[in-house]
Design goal:
Strand order of the largest sheet of chain C: 6-7-8-3-9-10-12-11
Order of helices and strands of chain A: HHHHHHHHHHHHH
Number of helices of chain A: 13
Number of strands of chain C: 22
Helix content of chain A: over 70%
Radius of gyration of chain A: 24 Å
Number of strands of chain A: 0
Oligomer: heterotrimer
Chains: A mainly alpha, B mainly alpha, C alpha/beta
CATH architecture of the largest domain in chain A: Orthogonal Bundle
Distance between the termini of chain C: 34 Å
Shape of chain C: globular
CATH topology of the largest domain in chain A: MetI-like fold
Largest interface: A-B, 58 and 53 residues
CATH superfamily of the largest domain in chain A: MetI-like
Radius of gyration of chain C: 26 Å
Chain lengths: ~325, ~290, ~625
């Protein structure tokens, strides 16, 4: 595709995603008004209800203004990453998020790498040894892993590898790169388990689908080496459905992160979200939700770009005869 | 969602395919049956009152009196396990059934009618596709307050798009086929075509999917309860039991591991049954 | 007849010598199914031989066995001698030296044969021999261009394009170039032209012949179409239910088949030159090799079967009868006795039947005037029909001939309300039928009771989850809401298409392709239409089954006095079935007239091209003096 074509494509996708973010932000903002009880009560939390507090909150949150104006004010501040202060701690939301973000990022990336390596690797291995013991074992393990939510696998891992065997630490994020790596291994594995299982299933199905194709037979008929057939034909084509799935994988990783951080007492974004939800700390909820939404949107954009790079039929359209 | 190939028969080996495959499914059915019984009868069949606290017997190991020991409030873990089956089964059942009903209708409409109906429905599906459901529920729970049935309702809203997408996919495959066009040519009305012609070909996937949805909802609801955003505190619930017992993992691990095992066992059984059903239903009727 | 163990031909030193090839498939519970029970043949240098068989004959598996590419679960036994070794004993690593370099193969479907994510130039480059691959980029590109030119592609940009950007014919050429990249001595072509248009088919076959002569290659052509084999091959082997029944030089086989199956196959195809009263039909369908083990494979369906045919498998033996050239082999033990009868049957079947074609009716049942149909595909507009005018009288049999993209299917869909014309008028039985949704319910019902359709693919024409009886009952009750005694009517419908009433309980997967197509016809007849549109109703069926369906359609027309609008790309079929013909191309009618007239003396250049593209065949009757050759 030409450079101009790429530019157009990206611009269109960005526009759609920006629209999505606007919708999400509106929904997130509206939460404040959807919650039962008056807005003021929610914002007060456990603080005393004094006239001083009331007038402070009213001016701070522009409660006299019409709804849309309030949204506009909030949105324009949100874009600059000013989400107000947390009701619980009275600290700026942005600083709370900034404090917690690194741990979650480390965990997320760690888990994602594990997922991709294990998922694709095991999926391919299972497909190439179809119906034999290795395949059956992998498939069976995948189904059990699928049915094991991250918090259950986290608990089991803690018990087996943290208590019985004392191999890994069971709480806290650790310090320094290797310290973090060590501490976050169990959480990352717990997190990766479900997503890996899905990836194994899909990769395996994709590779099996490709193995049966005529173009693989024709490649072998021309005497191409096994490695060329494997890389250029089987993997290349099996990659397409896998990339298609990457958005879903990301969803699982983010979802699981929330559960895992709670289990392993990791001070990350996920735990922050849960704490804020339990305490009904709405400015904090809004801030965290928007940050997560942006991450998801960017990741899906990357996945779309990757899909275009991998499948020329999508890139060039079917019309160019 | 995947209609991928992992089948019970594939796990147990092609050798004596039918016999081996069926023992696994029988085992799954037994597990599910037990859970259903526990869900229906609940405390009635539990040896002790699941909510009875007993400060003298906190965190005891399994013994004759308490088969799985007691938790941090002296409650009998085994009885709580049985009582917890109710929240583990009811919610997912409602979710799977509602989602199947709505998802199939919307999927058929989108796939068969096409055009604007399809575009509208798919826009909504795509929107929901990228959203991690659990997070959405957490955020909403933060605003509206947590609760089991609120979570169930939200999960229905979140699962319908997946069902819709799956059904729409199969419908799109079937709709251009000559047998559908022949029915149209004969004058069969659209609604009849969707329900009596296309849906029988969609049903294997739809039914199998319902089981997968069940398994997924089970784990999601348990996860929410784990975080404290699902059932009310104190309710016997497998997810909640896990979080309650987490800090006591050193003392009475069974109190924590048992509910975890139940979750995995039930979800795995439902997943296997779903995959097996799809294999059986589609190979019986479908030609190619 | 003296027995000879191998099908050796007059060539002294065969390049490839197959003896007793057997292919079996392992059954999951133990034991094995036979796919190919016994094939022996030899291929000389520079020779082209053909393996002809219908689906289920095992011809594709034979090809795959020779190249060691059988799917998992299948094993080959016997001997395939090439270069002094038995190829079946090779290990995978040794195979790589043979495949591509010594024996090349092209597969059937150009649309799935090429890696969709690799550019065409790269596909050819990766197939080149090692030295050429390791050469510099400019040299590689030049070599690729040379290979493409050899298969008739001179446009350099093709090398940069992906397969999905090319037409079927182009893709097949690229595939041929890739298969020949290492200059193999033997090329196996598995149905190389089946998925293509008739005209493209002819080009591809000519290309293969041309390359063969240039390289001095030997070619094994696998096909289900005897006409293709006669046009291209020197020697033909006929395969049925996993074993060879006859082997002969092509011209000899065409003039006089020496096995009832070969004869049946030959007669199932309507002659190109004239119409016959009824096509000779082989009843039943092809069995699996295990079902007919221990007897002549064709005995269950043979008109001349006798008890001796079922006592053991007859060997493929040399025929020594007067008037038969040496080197002809046949597996018919009764040949000396039945030869004369076979000749008589051929003559009778080939007898021309003159059809007095009445002039066209005054008022047409269907009238199409200047129909145009434009499809919007994204930003592009595709014109499927560009001003077509057509008439079909009551009870008339009209044919539409054209290749894919000619608009013939769009026209059919227009007539049954599945598409709406962008411009123009359609009138059916006096009712304006251009815009179906705008009609009243009663008018629509009348239209549906007037025109019905039979589709091409019998495998998706019936709802796989519903029984036959259910499908037919629905057809009856949808049209006639107050229908009574529906089960009896279902039984009648089944009987009218030659199926037993018990089939009503069965589901489609239990029926063969031919049977499913019969059910589709029965369904269309349920509303008692006056016109039946047949959109390529036999192209997806085996040749022997095609004849059954064509005869059925002819008989139904005589019984019920319904008309046909017969859409096909096959000129021999259209000659057999229709009285009046329209030839379509790119959405326009280029020629029309009485079928005989158009096919005997065509006027339009495209029609002439279509007629010439039919793989050449000779008329069958001994009386016929002229031989028309390619």
């Amino acid at each position: 595709m030409t450079a101009r074509g790429w530019a157009f494509f990206l611009a269109r996708r960005l526009a759609v995603l920006a629209l999505l973010l606007v919708v999400v932000s509106f929904a997130v903002f509206s939460l404040l008004y959807l919650s039962p009880g008056s807005v003021i009560d929610t914002l007060l939390g456990t603080n005393p209800r004094t006239p001083a507090e009331l007038s402070y909150l009213t001016s701070e949150y522009h409660l006299n203004q019409p709804f849309l104006t309030q949204y506009w004010i909030w949105a324009s501040q949100a874009v600059r990453l000013h989400f107000g202060n947390s009701i619980q701690t009275s600290l700026p939301v942005t600083s709370e998020i900034r404090q917690r973000l690194p741990v979650s990022l480390f965990l997320g990336v760690y888990a994602y790498i594990l997922t991709v390596l294990l998922g694709v690797g095991l999926g391919i291995a299972a497909a190439l040894r179809r119906q034999r013991l290795a395949d059956r074992g992998i498939v069976g393990a995948a189904i059990v892993a699928l049915s094991t939510p991250a918090f259950v696998s986290g608990v089991f891992l803690i018990y087996l590898l943290g208590i019985q065997v004392r191999l890994f630490p069971v709480a806290g994020p650790g310090t320094g790169f290797f310290g973090e790596l060590w501490h976050l291994t169990l959480p990352a594995v717990a997190l990766a388990l479900t997503a890996t299982a899905y990836l194994v299933k899909h990769t395996r199905a994709a590779v099996i689908g490709v193995l049966d194709q005529d173009y693989v037979t024709f490649a072998r008929a021309r005497g191409l080496t096994a490695s060329r057939v494997l890389t250029g034909y089987i993997l290349r084509n099996a990659l397409i459905p896998v990339v298609t799935m990457s958005g879903l994988i990301l969803s699982y990783v983010i979802t699981g992160a929330v559960l895992v951080e709670d289990t392993f007492s990791l001070p990350g974004i996920g735990q922050l979200l849960v704490q804020s939800a339990t305490a009904k700390d709405l400015p904090l909820i809004q801030g965290v939700a928007m940050v997560i939404a942006v991450v998801i949107v960017l990741a899906n954009l990357l996945a779309d770009v990757a899909l275009m790079a991998v499948d020329p039929r999508i890139r060039l359209g079917r019309g160019s005869r | 969602m995947s209609t991928a190939v992992a089948l019970p028969a594939e796990i147990t080996g092609a050798g004596r395919r039918r016999r081996r495959g069926s023992w696994l499914i029988s085992a799954c059915l037994v597990v599910v049956g037990v859970v259903v019984v526990m869900a229906v009868f609940g405390s009635a069949i539990a040896p002790q009152d699941p909510n009875a606290q007993n400060t003298f017997f906190i965190l005891t190991r399994p013994s004759g009196a308490h088969w799985l020991g007691t938790d941090s409030l002296g409650r009998d873990v085994f009885s709580r396990l049985i009582a917890g089956a109710r929240t583990a089964f009811l919610g997912p059942l409602v979710i799977a059934a509602s989602s199947m009903l709505l998802g199939n209708l919307l999927g058929l409409l989108a796939g068969y009618r096409g055009g604007r109906t399809d575009a509208l429905i798919m826009r909504w599906v795509d929107l929901m596709w990228a959203v991690p459901g659990l997070l959405l529920i957490i955020v909403v729970a933060g605003a509206l307050g947590s609760g089991y049935w609120l979570a169930v309702g939200l999960l229905i809203v979140l699962t319908v798009p997946f069902d819709t997408r799956v059904v729409r996919g199969v419908t799109l495959e079937q709709a251009p086929r000559p047998y559908v066009e022949a029915a149209r040519t004969l004058g069969v009305p659209d609604w009849r075509i969707m329900l009596f012609h296309i849906w029988p070909n969609v049903s294997p996937v739809a039914i199998a999917n319902a089981f997968l949805v069940f398994a997924g909802s089970l784990t999601s609801l348990a996860g929410l309860s784990f975080l404290g955003l699902g059932v009310a505190p104190g309710t016997p619930d497998w997810g909640l039991m896990l979080s309650e017992g987490l800090q006591d993992l050193f003392v009475n691990p069974i109190a924590v591991l048992a509910p975890g095992v139940m979750i995995v066992l039930t979800a795995t059984s439902m997943n296997l049954i779903g995959d097996w059903l799809q294999e059986r239903l589609s190979s019986k009727g479908a030609a190619r | 007849m003296t027995a000879s163990t191998t099908g050796t031909v007059s060539t002294a030193d065969p390049v490839l010598d197959v003896t007793g090839l057997r292919v079996t498939r392992a059954r999951p519970g133990g034991g094995a199914d036979t796919i190919v029970s016994s094939v022996s043949m030899s291929l000389g240098a520079g020779e082209t031989i053909g393996i002809v068989g219908e689906s289920g004959s095992g011809k594709s598996m034979t090809a795959k066995a020779i190249t060691g590419l059988l799917p998992p679960g299948l094993t080959a036994h016997g001997e395939v001698r090439y270069g002094g070794r038995n190829l079946l004993e090779l290990r995978e690593k040794q195979w790589r030296a043979v495949r591509g370099r010594e024996i090349g193969m092209i597969l059937q479907d150009p649309f799935t044969m090429l890696n969709p994510v690799v550019r065409c130039g790269q596909i050819i480059a990766e197939s080149l021999p090692g030295e050429a691959r390791r050469a510099g980029r400019a040299q590689r590109r030049a070599e690729v261009a040379r290979r493409l030119a050899e298969v008739g592609i001179r446009d350099e940009s093709v090398a940069h394009r992906y397969p999905f950007q090319l037409s079927g014919g182009m893709r097949q050429r690229v595939a041929i170039a890739a298969a020949l990249a290492r200059d193999p001595r033997v090329l196996i072509a598995d149905e190389p032209s089946t998925a293509l248009d008739v005209a493209t088919q002819r080009e591809i076959l000519a290309l293969i012949q041309q390359i063969q002569r240039a390289h001095g290659m030997s070619v094994i052509m696998i096909t289900h179409d005897l006409r293709v084999a006669f046009a291209v091959c020197e020697r033909v082997y006929v395969l049925y239910a996993g074993s060879l029944v006859e082997a002969a030089p092509a011209a000899e086989l065409r003039d006089e088949p020496l096995h009832p199956y070969s004869q049946g196959l030959l007669l199932s195809e309507p002659p190109a030159g004239h119409r016959v009263r009824e096509l000779a039909v082989i009843p039943g369908s092809v069995p699996s090799p295990d079902q007919v083990a221990g007897s002549c494979t064709f005995a269950p369906r043979c008109a001349w079967a006798a008890p001796q045919c079922r006592q053991g498998t007859p060997p493929l033996a040399e025929v020594e009868l007067p008037g038969v050239v040496p080197g002809r082999l046949s597996a018919c033990v009764r040949l000396p006795e039945i030869r004369a009868e076979m000749m008589l049957a051929r003559e009778r079947a080939g007898r021309e039947q003159h059809q007095a074609v009445a002039g066209r009716a005054e008022t047409a049942l269907i009238s199409v005037r200047d129909a145009r149909k434009v499809f919007q595909q994204g930003s592009r507009a595709v014109t499927a029909l560009d001003g077509v005018s057509l008439d079909v009288g009551d009870g008339e049999s009209v044919g539409i001939v054209g290749e894919s993209g000619s608009g013939k299917t769009t026209l059919a869909r227009l007539l049954i309300g599945l598409e709406r014309a962008t411009e123009g008028q359609v009138t059916i039985d006096g009712i304006p039928a251009t815009d179906w949704p705008a009609l009243s319910g009663g008018d629509r019902r009348r239209l549906r009771g007037t025109v019905q359709i039979v589709f091409q693919d019998p495998y998706s024409s019936l709802n796989p989850m519903r029984s036959i009886g259910w499908t037919l009952a629905e057809a009856i009750t949808t049209h006639d809401r107050r229908a009574r005694n529906v089960p009896a009517r279902v039984g009648d419908l089944l009987a009218s298409v030659g199926l037993p009433a018990s089939y009503a309980q069965r589901k489609p997967f239990a029926l063969s392709g031919g049977e499913r197509q019969r059910v589709a016809i029965a369904r269309a007849l349920a509303v008692r239409p006056r016109l039946l549109i047949c959109d390529e109703p036999v192209s997806a069926l085996d040749v022997s089954v095609q004849a059954q369906i064509l005869n059925l359609l002819t008989a139904l027309r005589a019984e019920r006095r319904i008309g046909y609008l017969f859409i096909t790309h096959d000129l021999s079929i259209v000659r057999q079935i229709t009285d009046y013909l329209y030839v379509m191309r790119h959405g326009r009618v280029v020629e029309s007239g009485p079928t005989e007239g158009v096919l005997t003396s065509p006027r339009d250049a495209y029609t002439i091209k279509l007629i010439e593209s039919v793989p050449g065949r000779q008329a069958l009757t001994p009386r016929s003096a002229t031989t028309s050759r390619e």
